[in-house]
Amino acid sequence: MSLRPAPRLRPGLDRRAVFHAPPAPRPARPGAPAPGERHVVVVGGGIAGMTSALALAERGVRVTLLERTDRLGGRVRSWPVTLADGSTSHMGRGFHAFFRQYYNLRAVLRRADPALERLRPLADYPLVRAGGGADSFAGIPRTPPAPPCPAPDGMIAGAEGSALEAFRAGQAEEQECLFYVAQSRARDRLILYAPTEKSNGHNRPLSPFLDRLGTNLTRRSVVPARPLPTAAEAQGIELIVDGRLQFGAAQIALYESCPRRFFYTHVLQVGGRRTATAFMHLHEAVRAVVEGVITSDCPITERDLEDSTDAALAGQGLADHGYRAEFRDLALAMLRFLLANRAEAVAEAPVALSLNFGGEEIIVRPDEVLVRPDGVRAVRRIRTGHRRSAESKDVGAAALMLAVQQAFPGAVAELVHLSDGETHVLALSDRELKGRKDKLAKFLGDIRAGRFPAEVSSRTCPNCPAFFICGQTPDGPLQKKFA
Ligand SMILES: Cc1cc2nc3c(=O)[nH]c(=O)nc-3n(C[C@H](O)[C@H](O)[C@H](O)COP(=O)(O)OP(=O)(O)OC[C@H]3O[C@@H](n4cnc5c(N)ncnc54)[C@H](O)[C@@H]3O)c2cc1C
Ligand code: SF4
Fold this sequence. Notes:
This protein is an alpha/beta fold. The protein has four domains: about 40-75 and about 90-120, no CATH class; about 140-145 and about 165-225, no CATH class; about 245-275 and about 345-480, Lambda Exonuclease, Chain A, CATH 3.90.320; about 280-345, no CATH class. The chain is built from ten helices and 16 strands. It has helices spanning about 45-60, 105-110, 165-185, 250-255, 260-265, 280-295, 300-315, 325-340, 395-405, 430-450, and strands at about 40-45, 60-65, 80, 90, 125-130, 135, 240, 245-250, 345-350, 355, 360-365, 370, 375-385, 410-415, 420-425, 480. The protein has a five-stranded mixed β-sheet. Strand 13 (about 375-385), helix 9 (about 395-405) and strand 14 form a beta-alpha-beta unit. Helix 4 packs antiparallel against helix 9. It is elongated. The chain starts with about 40 loop residues before the first strand and ends with a strand. The relative contact order is 0.10. The chain binds flavin-adenine dinucleotide and iron/sulfur cluster (SF4).
C-alpha cells in the first residue's frame, strides 16, 4: 500500500494552472450538431487557423472559423488603400518571402492557385539594415567551403583518402540524400534547379549522381528573367587621389582578400580595433623581443633572451597573469627557434624596398636580411603566428619576391613563422610570379578607379572589424592622399 497522496492533476508545467472539468451535457439547442456529427471551432484566421480549418473541412468536419478582425490572413494579410494621388495600392503587414521548401504552405495555396502563379519567383531576398549594411540569401555557398582546420589525415574512422577528400565525399553523399528526400515528397515530378556557373564565371559541375537517373531526367536551361541590379556596395566610389598610390605589401594583400575591407582599413581608416586577448599581448611581447634581437649588434645569450622576454611580458601586462609561466614557455620556444634559425648567419640592416607600377608604388619592408655561411642572402618576413595556407602564394608574398629579385639578384625570400617553428623559402614559378605581378598592377588600377567590392564570406566576415559598417557609402567624391 502506498502512503503517498495521489498526484494532483495539472494541465501542463505551469504551477498556477488550474484544471477545469468539462461542462455537463446540456439538452440539444436548435442548429446544434446532430449526435455523431463533428463541429470544430477554429479561433484565428491567420495561416495556421485557415490551414487547420481547410484540413478539417476537407475531412468532412463542420468548421466555424472565428477571426476577430474584418479580414483573414493574420500577419500575412493585406488590404486595399487609396493613396494621396487617388491611385489604389495594397498595404501589407510586411514583406513576406515564401521559400521553395515551404512544401505545406505551397500545397495549401495550390487549392486556389494550382500553378502558384501568384507567387513571384525572386533571385534573392536581400535584407537591408538601417545603417546601410545588407545581407543576401544569394551569397550562401551551395558547396560549403572546406574546413580551415580539417581533421588530421587518417583520423576519420572508415574514411578513404585525406581528411579533405573525406569531407568532399561526405558533402556529395549529403547532396544525394537531400535529392532522395525531395524525391520522396514529389507527387508526380521533381524539378531540380542547379546553377551551372560560379560567380567567377567558371563552370559549376552538376552532382555526379544525376547521371545515374539516365533518361528519366529531362534537362532544360533557364535564363533568369530578371537579373539582379548591382548591389549598392558593389558600385564604385568616386575617389580623387592626390599624387601617387603608395601601399605596403601587407596592405595590398588585404585588398586581395577583400577590397571592401581594404577600403575601410586603408582608405577610410575606420578599420576598428579588436579587443586584445592575452594571446594577442603574448604575440606583441614576442614581437618586441624579435625586434630587439634583430637590431642588436651583440650575440644574444639564453640569459639575455629570458630577461628580455620577462620584461616584454611585463610590458604587455602579463606579469601577474594566471598563465604567465605557460606564456613564458611559449614565447621562449618561439624565440629560441629564431635564434637557432639565424645562428652563424651575418645580419644586415633591413631596408625598405620599392616596386614601381607605372608611377604607383608598393613598399616592401623585410624584417631582416641575413647572409648565410654559404654566401646566400635571405630576405625574411618574420611572423609570430602560424602560417596560413594561402600566405606563400598571395600578392604580398609575390611583392616580397619581386622586390628581392629586383634589389638582391640571387637572394632568396623567406617567410618565418615562429609558432610553427618553420621557415619557408618562397618559390613561385615564373608564370605564377607574372600572374601575381599583373594582379598587383590591376589592384592598383582598381583602387585608383574606386573599385572596392565586398568579398562576402560566411567564414571571414563575422571576424571582420568592419562587419557592422560594411555596406553602402554616402554619395559624393572622396579625396585622399596616400604617398
Ligand atoms: C513583418 C513580418 C514579416 C514576416 N516575414 C516573413 C517571411 O518573409 N517569411 C515567413 O515565412 N514568415 C514571415 N513572417 C512570419 C509569418 O507572417 C507568421 O509566422 C505567420 O503569418 C503566422 O501565422 P499564424 O496563423 O500562426 O498567426 P497570425 O498570422 O498572427 O494569425 C493569428 C490570427 O488570429 C486572430 N486572433 C487572435 N486572437 C483572436 C481571438 N481571440 N479571436 C479571434 N481571432 C483572434 C488574429 O487577428 C490573426 O488574424 C513575417 C511576419 C511579420 C510580422
Ligand atoms: S564584412 Fe566581409 S565583405 Fe565586409 S569588409 Fe569585412 S570581410 Fe569584406
